[in-house]
TrEMBL record:
This is Ribose-5-phosphate isomerase A. InterPro entries: NagB/RpiA_transferase-like, Ribose-5P_isomerase, Ribose5P_isomerase_typA_subgr, Ribose5P_isomerase_type_A. One of its GO terms (molecular function) is ribose-5-phosphate isomerase activity. It comes from the Bacteria. Belongs to the ribose 5-phosphate isomerase family.
């Protein structure tokens, strides 16, 4: 079986009747949402979903999953989401699908955060995957200059027609081609303090469980202790 599908199905086992579930975004999370939809249809599972992007909202609505916004719930029991890179200390880069802002907000209010990935996402150090930074359009060229001056190799993410890609919140994404992030916590703190930066894709100390699909050993589940 496709490794993304394997972990998507496995992760849906963590979803129990009555839970409020954060529904992640991307090609791996897609299979988790499909499996929750199947369990609702075939097993009578009843949950409330909190989606992390317009794309997931569309998929979940089509499956008939009842949805609430993050502001309508007092907490989220578990959020299940993909990731672009996970380091050996279980920090991550997210935002390859440009949904990092809502993903980080939903994960922040979740009791548990489960990441589902195929083995290609597991790395020793973060940074080979370009780090997405969501910025407001106003002043974004100034941020590009600032990132350039720091040697962060920034590129505004663009659509096929050359226009900047707009996130669900109508912001831009600047991808930082860093190759290796020596100190993710220092970089996250610095980015948190730059005017015009809305959010960045460093998700540190957020995952409580990581489910990895491997071709030789099947599904591996790691409970992260911090
Ligand atoms: O952070 C994300 C979207 O913003 C995704 O979770 C991440 O890009 C992984 O996606 P995929 O499962 O398609 O590889």
């Amino acid at each position: 079986m496709n490794l993304k599908k394997m972990v998507g199905i496995e992760s849906a086992k963590y979803v129990k009747d009555g839970m409020t579930v954060g529904l992640g975004t991307g090609s791996t999370a897609f299979f988790m949402v499909e499996e929750i939809g199947r369990r609702m249809r075939e097993e009578g599972l009843s949950i409330t979903g909190v989606t992390t992007s317009n794309a997931t909202e569309k998929q979940a609505s089509e499956l008939g999953i009842p949805l609430k916004s993050i502001d309508e719930v007092d907490h989220v029991d578990v959020t299940i989401d993909g990731a672009d890179e996970i380091s050996n200390d279980y920090h991550g880069i997210k935002g390859g699908g440009a949904a990092l802002l809502f993903e980080k907000i939903v994960a922040t209010y979740s009791n548990k955060t489960i990441w589902i990935v195929d083995e290609s996402k597991m790395v020793e150090h973060l940074g080979a995957f370009p780090l997405p930074v969501e910025v407001i359009p106003y002043g974004s060229d100034q941020l590009v200059r600032l990132f350039n001056s720091k040697g962060y190799n920034p590129k505004i993410r663009r659509q096929d027609n050359g226009n900047p890609l707009l996130t669900d919140s109508k912001n831009y994404i600047i991808d930082l081609y860093l190759e290796k992030i020596e100190n993710p916590k220092d970089l996250a703190t610095w980015l948190d303090h730059q005017v015009g930066v809305v959010e960045h894709g460093l998700f540190l100390d957020m995952a409580t469980t990581v489910i990895i699909g491997t071709s030789d050993k099947g599904v591996q589940t790691i409970e992260v202790s911090r």
